[in-house]
Design brief:
The chain is α/β, with parallel strands linked by helices. The chain has an eight-stranded parallel beta barrel with strand order 1-2-3-4-5-6-7-8, surrounded by six helices. It is globular. It starts with 8 loop residues before the first helix and ends with a helix. The mean pLDDT is about 90.
Length: about 300
Amino acid sequence: MPSPRPPSIAEILAIGDHPTMSFEFFPPKDDAGQAQLLDAIAALEPLRPDFVSVTYGASGSTRARTIDATRLIQATTASLTMGHLTCVNQSIDDLCGAIDAYANAGVWHILAVRGDPTGGPTSGWERHPGGLNNATELVELVKASGDFCVGVAAFPDGHPENHDLDLDARILADKEQAGAEFAITQLFFDADAYFRLVERVRALGCELPIIAGIMPVTNVRQIERFATLSGAALPEPLVARLRAVADDAAAVRAVGLEVATELCDRLLVGGAPGLQFFTQNRSPATAEILARLRQA
């Protein structure tokens, strides 16, 4: 008789006896990348994450590597594992193939996101001729395909395509109606933006738990890259603090960790149900932030 499944992410969040801590990884491109991923996983596993997730490349370009990475994580750790899935440049048949591959790998959590257009987050969205229009439709497809627990994306600073905060809230409510059970935000650096997002969706009757996505800035080069990823500029006070020590790499890293720890602390005090750390397949910054939080 098969052993029962452990509690799902949605069930862990519903119990609510602790804020969840989770880590996002990306699928490795080669043997060196796989070794780095394994090192990061091994270093972070003792921190007992509630779950880990693996990203899905643009246009499904890393689908096989994502599936392999989720399988590897499940084989080498006790961590609950979630795979990402996007609509970009994929037909419904492609998406069903990916969903089946997750099921065959024993992965029953999926983060369903529309994904950025090929030209980047601010370029126009083009639906695949045989594909889906948005993440809401993807949630419906995943839920219709099996017994999956489905998460979705949320945008404290506004989706980069429209920057319409009220529209974002309505879309998140639609995703819940389609079957989504929790959300994870895009990276952000302003706690108030997160709390305003929660207020907007609650005003619509949407009760999705919204996990906060956290990425510490550890070098100045990341400033522009983060702006590109999120579609929003970093807060000027943060940029000023980083640029003030730009010539000292250790000082930049220290400021980045301090800012991230302050953000996490404020989010948790304000009731955020969990934190997801975008690890970039590296462990030290995430481990240091969690150590500081647990000492507080």
